[in-house]
Fold each of these.
Amino acid sequence: MSAELHFHSIAEAAAQLEAKTLSAVELTQAVIARTKAVEPRVRAFLSTDEATALAQAAASDARRAAGHARGPLDGIPVGLKDVIAVKNQPLTAGSRMLANFVSPYDSTAAAKLQQAGAVLWGRLNCDEFAMGSSNENSAFHPTGNPWDVSRVPGGSSGGSAAALAAGEALATLGSDTGGSIRQPAALCGVVGIKPTYGLVSRYGLIAYASSLDQIGPFARTVEDAAIVLRAIAGHDERDSTSFRTEIPDYRAELQTRRGPWKLGLPKEYFGEGLDPEIAAAVERAIAFYKAQGCEIREVSLPHTQYCLDTYYIIATAEASSNLARYDGVRYGHRAKNAKDIVDLYFQSRAEGFGAEVKRRIILGTYVLSSGYYDAFYLRAQKVRTLIRQDFLNAYKEVDALLTPTSPIPAFKLGEKSDPLAMYLCDIYTIGVNLAGLPAISVPCGFTRGNLPIGLQLIGQPFQEASLLALAHSYDRAHDWSSRHPKL
Amino acid sequence: MNYEAVIGLEVHVQIKTRSKVFTRVGAGYGHEPNTLTDPVVLGLPGALPVMNKAALDAIIKAGLLLGCEIAPVCKWDRKNYFYPDSPKNYQISQYDQPICLGGAVEIELPGSARNVMGEHKRIPLTRIHLEEDVGKLNHGATDSLVDYNRAGTPLMEIVSDPAMHTADEAFAYLTSLRATMIYGGISDCDMEKGQLRCDANISIRPVGEKRLGTKVELKNLNSISFVRDGIAHEIKRQIGVLERGGTIVQETRDYDGMTGTSQSLRSKEEAHDYRYFPDPDLMPVVVDVAWKDRIRAECPELPFDKQRRFLAEYQLPYTLTSVLVWDRALADYFEEAAKLAGAGKAQAVGNWITNDLLRELGGARLTVAEARVRPGHIAALVQLVDSGVVLTNAAKEIFVEMFATGDQPGVIAERRGLKAAPTDAGELEQWCRDAIATNAKALAEFKAGKDSAINAFKGPVMKAAKGKANPKLVDETLRRLLAAM
C-alpha cells in the first residue's frame, strides 16, 4: 500500500472511503495538491477545474454519508483526455482550432463515470486530434514523462499516462486509434487498455479515425483498470457501432479466471528494431507465464508488414472527412479578415491545424480522390480484412497473444523529427486496432536508465474478462506498479 | 434538322418524419432559426449519427409504391464537400448501394380534349436513395447567416432514367410522382417549403440518333410549372446553339423562373470530387422480407390504378375520375358516399362531390377532411332527389345549408319547406288534362311520334304545382293520359 494518497490504487482508496477513514474531499484535495506540486515539470493538463472537482467530491461524501455510495469509483478523481466531451468543460483536442471550445454536452463515457460517482479532474494533454506518438503535436505544450521529464510520455494519450504516473489522478481515460493508450502506458509505467472496438461508446469522443477509435482506461493496476472499464463499457443507442453485449463484473472475474492460458508469440513482433532491454523484459514475462503452467508457442501474423501502410490509408481517409467540420463557420477558430467563404476555410484551417494534422488530412484526401480510391482506400480495406483474419487464425491455436507494447522506451523530446520514424513507435499496436481487438499494456520492468517497459497482451473480441485476468495474474505477482517516479 | 430532347430528372423529396434522419431532434418548417438543432445536427465535435427507422420505413414504402427492387442490404456513404449549409462538410448519403433500384413512374400525357384520357407511359427509374438535407443560407448585404433547422431532415433522391423527351412528359412525371408521395403519406411535397425539389438533365440529339448528346444540368426548378418552362426553354436554347453551329458545353445552369432565363453556374471542369467512402459511424441496413411485408401492407392503391377501377367499377365518366382520384381523401370520400347511396348512383354522387362539394370547400378554404358534409349526407341527398322527395333546384339549396350546418338533408328540406309537394293524385291529373287540352299542337306532334313533345305539357303542370310536383310522377301521369287519347 502506498502511503501517499495520490499514489493510491482505486482499490485502496475505495476501501478507505468505504471504511470512512478517508473522504472523497480529502482524496481530491491530495490529488489537487500533488498536481500543483508536479505540474510545472510534467505539464500533463491543459485545464483544471478545482471548484467543480471539489463539489463533485463533496457530493460523493454526502451520498456515502446517506448510505447511497455508488461503488468503487465513487469519490475517485479521474482525469480525461481532452478529446472526451464533458458538459461545460473545455474540449480542445490539443488543437488551436478548438482552443476556446467548451462542450455543451457530455460524452457517454464521461456521463457513465459520473453515474459511477467519479470526480472528474482536469483535461489532459494529447497530440493534436490524437494524431501522434509523443504528445509533441499538442498545440499548447509538450508533456514530460514523469520518469524523466526531458523525455516524451508517448502519445497520443500522453497527458493521461503522465498524469497517472505522476500521481495527478487515480485513473484516467484516453483514446486509442493505433496505440494511443497502450504506447504511453508502456512509456509511463502504467496499465492501459484498448477495448474491443464497440465495447465503449464513442459518443462524445472527438473522432480521429472512426473505425479505429476506442476510449479506454489508464490505471495503476489491472484490478483498477477492470473497475474503470466496467463503468464505461456497454451498448449506447447514441453510437451505432457500439455492441450489444453483457458487461461482466471484470473485477470479480479476475478471481474466477485463473488459466492456465495458451499464449502465442507472433514472430513478426520480435524482429528487427526491438530494443534489447525491452526484448529481455518481455522474455522474463514469458518465462513467468511458462512457470505458471501456460503453454507458449510461436504463431505467425503474416500480414503484419502491411499494418502501418494500411493504417495510414484508412485512418487518414477517415480523418480527412472527420476533421472537415472544423471550418471556422459554427465554432472553433475563425480567421479574421477572410475575403469570402473559401478564404475563411483556407485561413481558419491553415491557422487552426498543426503540421501533423495537415499532413494526415492531405494524405487522407488524396487516398479518397477519384482515380486513387480503388488503389488505396479499397485495397487497404481488403488488407485490413486479411490482417484481422491473421489474428482470428492465431486464436484457433492460442487464447491470447503476448508482445512488447513499444519497440523502444521513452525517447527525448524533439528526438524524432522524421514523421516516419515516429510512426514506427506504433508498429506493435496498430494491428490490434485494424483487427478491432482488445489489448492491454502492463508494466513489466525498467531499463537500466530507469525507464518503464510495457508488455502487451492481445485478447479475443469482447473477451476483456479473460484478457484482464491474464494480465492480472502477471500484475499481482510483480511490484512494478508500486514504483513511482521521483519528481 | 429535327431534334429530340432526352430528359432525366433528379427529384429530392423531404420525408415527413417527426424527428431528423440521424438524431432525435424534431424536424419541421417555419420554426425560429437554429432551434431544431442538437450536437448531431450542428456537427459538434464527438457527435455521432444514429439511423431513424421511420425514414427507412418511408423510403421502403416509396420504393414499393414505385415498383422498385428493395435492396436486401444498403449502406451509408459520406459525400465530402465544403459548404456552410453542410454542418459536417460532408453529407451522409448512399453512393453505390442505394436502398431502391429500378421501378417506374406511370404518367398520363394530355388528351385530345379535357374529357378524353391521354396516353399513358411508364418512365423507368434508376434508383432512389436516402440522404440528409442541408441547412439554409440567408444572404445579407454584408454577411450570410445559416439556419440549420432543415439540416438533417430525411431526404430521398429519386433519379429517373434519361427517358423523357418533352417538357410535358417531365411535367406529367413530376405531377404523378408528387401524387404518389402524398398518397403514401411519405411527404407533403410542398415545393414552396422545399419539400420537393427538382433538377433536370437535358440533352438533345438529331431524331434517329442513338447516342446521347452532351447534357446540361438545370437547377432551381422550384415549382412544377417552372420545371415545364425551364425544360422547354433549355431545349430551345440547345437547339439554337446547334443551329448557329455551336456545341453544347457540359455544365450546370441555374434557371430563373421569374425571367424565364438561365445562366451557367459551373462547367464540368469545376465539378466536385466528392470523395465518397462508406460512413464508418453507421452500420449497413439489412431489409428482410418481414420488414418489406409490413410496409407493403401499408401501401395504398395508386391514383392511376384507382382511376382504372373507378372507370370500371362505378362506370364514371373520365372527367369525374380525373378530378376524384388525385386527392386520396377525396377519392375515399367518394367511395364511401357511393357505397352508402347504393347501386347505380355513383355518378350522381360524383357530380355532387366534384361540383358542389369542391366549390364550397374552395370558398371556405377547407379540406375534405374538415367538411361538415360527410359521405352519408351526400348519399342521403342523392336518395332524396332520386326518389322525387326533393327537386334538383331545392337540392342545390339544401347542399349549401348542409355544408354550412352539417345537418342531414332531410332535416333541412323539412325545416326549409323544400320537399316536393305531397301531390294529390286527382289534382295532378286535372293539371295534366288542362295542359294537354290547351296545347293541341304538342298533342298532335306527340301522337305523330315525337316523344320530346311531352315536355311542352310539363311547364304548365309545374307552374300550376308552384314547382313542387314530382317530375317523375308528372311524366308518368302525362304518358298515361296521352296513351288513352
Note: Chain B touches chain A at residues 39, 42-51, 78, 80, 82, 84, 87-90, 144, 146, 273, 275-277, 280-283 (CB under 8 Å).
Amino acid sequence: MEKLYKFLKYTFIILWTVFIVAPFLWAISTSFKDFQSVNSKVTYIPWLDFEPTLEGWRVLIKSPARGGVDIVEPYFNSLFVTCTASLISIVLGTLAAYALSRFTFKAGFVRNNDITFFFISQRIMPPIVLSIPFFIFLSTIGLLDSLIGLVVVYIVLLMPIAVWIMVDFFNRVPKELDETALIDGCNPYQAFYKVVLPNSIPGLIVAGMFCIIFGWIDFFFAFILTFTEVQLLPVKVVALNSSITPWWSLSASALISVAPLIIVAFVVERYLSKGNLSGALK
Amino acid sequence: MNLVAKHLTYKPDDQYHLNDVSFNFEKGRLYTILGRTLSGKTTLLKTIAGLLNPDSGNINFEDKNFSKVPVWERNVAMVYQQFINYPHLSVYENISFPLKQRKLNEENIKKNVEDALKTVGLVGFENRKIQELSGGQQQRVALARSLAKKAKILLLDEPLVNLDYKLREQLREEFKTIFNEGLANETILIYSTTDPQEVMELNGEVIVLDEGKVLQTGPAKDIFENPINLKVAEISNDPPMNIINGLKIDGKITFENINIKLPKHLSQLDNKNYNFGIRSSEIKLSDSGEEFEIELAEISGSETLLHLKRGSTKVIALIEEVMNFKIHEKVKVVFNSDKFYVFAEDGKLISSPYRIKNG
C-alpha cells in the first residue's frame, strides 16, 4: 500500500513537472531555431535535429529600421519602473506598517485595523475601477505616457502589498524588543533602524519580491496609461504577438520577460522553505 | 536621592492597572513586588522605566521629576519574563549594545561586558548567536546586559517564570549572590514575581500588589507572618492559605462538626464567627484526626497537594512526601491550631500566631 502510494505520488509529480517544464523547453528550443527548422519538420534536439542559431535573439535587439523589434528599451523601462516603485513602496510601506503595528491611531471611528484594511482594500477592487481615475489624474498633472507617471501609479498598486506583509511581520516581532531598545538608550528612531529593521530582513525581502513580481507582470495599467513615448515590456511583448514577428523571436522575448520572475521565485522560495519568516524571532 | 512615586494611577480601560500607588525606594536595596498575574506588576515596572505614562501621579528620582525624562535617558535596565535579546547580534554585541549607545570607549565596554559575563557564568559564549542558546542562557544574557549597564534602577519582571523548574531553582540561587555581591550600593533593584517562595528567598522589602493597589508593604518576614488581610494571605502563600469559616465558642473553634481546642494565642477572641486561616503545610495526615474526602491529589516534585473537602469546607493540605491517593478516598487530618490566623468577616487580620492583637 505504502509502495503504491509512493509510486502514484511520484508519477503525479513527474507528470506535473513535465506539464510545467515542457512549454519552457519548447520556448527555449524554438528561440534558437531559424525559419527552416520551424517550418520544415518536427525538431527538438539542437545540433542533432536542427542547427541552433541566435537569429531569433538578434531580432530583439535590432532597431525596427533594420528589421528588428527593439525590446531593449521597453525592458529597461520595465526594470526602472518596477524597481523604483518597489523600492519606494517598501520604504514607505515599512514605515507605515511599523506605525500601524506599534502605535494606536484614533480618528473618529477609524482605528489601526481600519487603516490597514484601507491599504489592502486598494487591491480588493478590480483594477479596471481605478483605470479611469488614474487616467484623469495623470493627464491632469501631465504625467500620462511617462515613466514617472507609471512609477506613481505602481506605488499606489504595490504599497498595499508591502504594508500588508510588513504589518503582519511587525505584529509578530515582540513589542518588548522595541521597549528593550528604548530602555537601552535608543530613541524611537534608533530603536527602529538599529533593532527592529535588522530583525525584519526576511520580511523585507519577501515584501520586496512580491512588489517586484506584481509590478513586473502588470499589463493593464502599462497598457492604459502609455501610448507612444514610453512602452513597458508586457505591452511590447503582446504587441509583438500580433505583428509579423517570427516565432523564434517571440519565444526569446517570452523567455527574457519571465527571467527576472524566475530568479525572484527562487530567492523567495529559499526564504519561505527555510522558515525564516516566522522563526526569526520567538 | 530616592525613587519616590506619589499617587500613580493608570486606568487605560475600565480596570485599574495602577490605583493610587505610592512608594519610596532607597538606593542599594532590593524591593520585590508580589502579586498575581494582571495585578499591575508589569505596569508598575514599565511606568518606572518610562514606557508607560500614568494618568496621574508622578515619579521623582534623585529629586528630579522623572515624568519629563524620556525612557532612553532614564538610565534604567529591565529584564522581561520573555527572554528578550537582540536576535541579530551575538552575545557580546548584545551586552555591549547599551554601552555603545552611551558611547563608552572600547576598553571600558570590553571590561564591563567581561565582568557581566563572569557574573552570569557565560564566559566563552561571547560569539554565540542568541538562537543557539537555551532559555536559561538567553535569560542570563538579558541579565548580563542589564548588569553591564550599571543602571541606577534595575527592573526584573518575573525573570524566572518562563524557565523550567530546575533552572528556576538554580538561577534563583545565583540571583541571590549576584544581588548581594554584584550590585553597587547605587542601585535600586526592583523584582516582580507571582511566587511567594521567591519573595521569601530574596528577602527584600515586599510590596503586595492586587488590581493595581498596594495592599501591604514591609519586610518579607512581616508579610509572611502578619498578612494584613485575607487577600494578602492568599497572594503571599503558595498554595494559597486555607480559609475556614468557623465559630469560636468559649474554649473551642467549631466548623463542619469539628471541634478544635482554642490555641493560646486566640484566648482573648470574642465568641463569634471568623475566617480562620491556616497554611497548607500546617494540615497533617493523622489517624487521630478528622475525616475529609479527597477531591484531587497533585504530586509536584517531592510533595503531594491534597485537595480536601468536608461539607462546604474545602482545604488544601501539603504532604511532604509523594503518596498515591485515590479520588473520593477518605483521609484523616489534624490542624495545627497553634498556627491559626484569624480574619474578621470583612477580611482584616485580627490575630496571627506571630503577633497577638486583641480583636
Note: Confidence is low (pLDDT under 50) at residues 275-282 of chain A.
